[in-house]
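# step 3/5: fold
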Amino acid sequence: MKKNINRFIDLLLVFRKKILFCFILLFSFNNSLFSQPCTNNNGTYILPYGSWPNNTFTPNCSGVYLDIATNCWAGEYSNVNVVVGETYSFQSSIPTDIVTIDNNNSIPSLAFGTGTVTWTSTITGVVRFYTHGANCSVNTNNRTRRVLCGSSPPPPPPCAISTPAANTCNVSPSICNINGYCGNTGSTYTQNSWAQLTTAFCGSIENNSFISFIAPATTVSLNVYIQNCTNNDGIQMMVYSGGCGSGPVTSYACDNLMAPPFETFTVPGLTIGNTYYLMIDGWAGDDCDYIIDIPGYSVTSFPPLTLNNNAITIANGSSTNLIASGGNGTYTWSPSTGLNTTTGSSVMANPSVTTTYTVYSFTGDTLCPTATTAQVTVTVCDYGCTDVLACNYDATATCDDSSCVYDVSTPLVTNTCTGVSSGEINVNISTISTGNIYTYSINGSTPILYNIATSNLSAGSYTYEFFVNGISCGIQSLLVDNFNTTVISINTTDETCSGNSDGTASINGTISTNASYLWSTGATTDSITNLSPGSYTVQITDLNGCISTQNFTINTGVQGPSAFAGLPASICEGIPYTLNGATSSNSLGVIWSTSGTGTFSGGNTLTPIYTPSSADIIAGSVILTLTAIGNNPCGDVVSTVILNIDPIPITVPITHY
């Protein structure tokens, strides 16, 4: 408002001078016939309207034309401060105007021409910038007088994403990078100040706003681009520290008029990393857009936060080195469980359970870093073989260590003749892996290499244990039997009644060709009849020359048979079951049968070995039936027993989280 009143008064004074001078002009006008343009007969400049504006204009030599005044007339001048050696271009907005530069109404002039005059100053001080119309005419047509000096400014940078300045200091946004910061001094901002701020400022405050920034250097030179000003006046700026809303402030730089389109604002004495406030105000309340640029400044950033590994597996009881890099170089680790320290770029981790560690640091703009994290999961393992099919399966292992070995053996049994120790066990290996040592043991003996046979075995059951690199693959039972052709099974019938001597005996099954028979009765056929109660023997010689002898008894008649299959039992999957609790009396023999599909070894004895089939294992149980063959007239007697088959437990590795 003050400026507008002063301007109005100045216009009235100039107008009065212009009216008075019109009469003088009629008699003294010179149309530039002299060597100096637009002078009177007495050698003075034709100057009916005096000076405008009243103040002396100081160009900022920013390389762009600066308007001295926009409502100038022909026949007046403006005072301009110049510096010796600087080149100036003085220009009128009317290209036909005569432009003259002199030193306080001195003749001859320092420079003159039409439209624009470029002159390298020979003095330091104030010069006059005259404008006259063509042919030295004077008139009241408004024109703009402007002046240029210095190099052209760099083009304004693009606007960065800018948080608007705050109307009050206490909520001023912190701008990490004011390089390319854009804002304006619009009417939305009101006057906000306190006594110390008003005193420290170099002008009057009308619509100020605030931002804060972190000093990137001790001296910051800002290029300020001022655009789209409503009154074409400009803006004001001050950088300070101290109070915010109240209290004393320290000003580091203040400019009370930064005219469009460009000004340089230098702020010395800063401390790198400290926070400062930048107050922007419209000159006399002017509404302007502005862009702030820091020449030569580039944003530096902390590198990304990284870890030497994001997933590590260690053995229980061991430790691992966790290494962080990047960020601002300061690191904090969490949780502290199992760590030797919670700070620093390198820590040792020795957790007892699987643990995810988080490292904290800062990344991004070095002036305004952002908190960031990175994580690594340390999996703690109890190492061992985790394959349930392996010989060395470890139910407590949580991580496989590739140590699993497998039973690749097949024991081969060669039977023996009855009464002769000629049986043999050999081992066949299906897959031989380089570096593995394969051995086996019979009946707990010292293990021998797989390719050495165990000989001179008599018929019977043997335990077979296979080893890979000294690791047992389990024990299984082997049967060295008589040759199949000499295995004798006899069907007998007791006498029907005591004294009838009508018992019979016959060989059950097929005997190999060329086998010979010799009964204790002297018979040589495959069956005999008319037997009295008592004990008998049959001797069979097969084509291998093996002699097998089988004793049997013909029981007294009348008495009925009895049978007991034994008590219910349970076995584990894959283990044959020997029935050892069955009893029978007064029968011609026993026969075992099953509700499943398994097989019996010695199925016509009271102690057979039952091997469950796959279907039996899936069913989970079978019913085994013992049939005692009765004598005529006595019928057969049966007894059953339930055999439960339990699957081998499957152990699932447990992973701790």
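# step 4/5: annotate
The first helix runs from residue 2 to 28.
# step 5/5: archive (pending)
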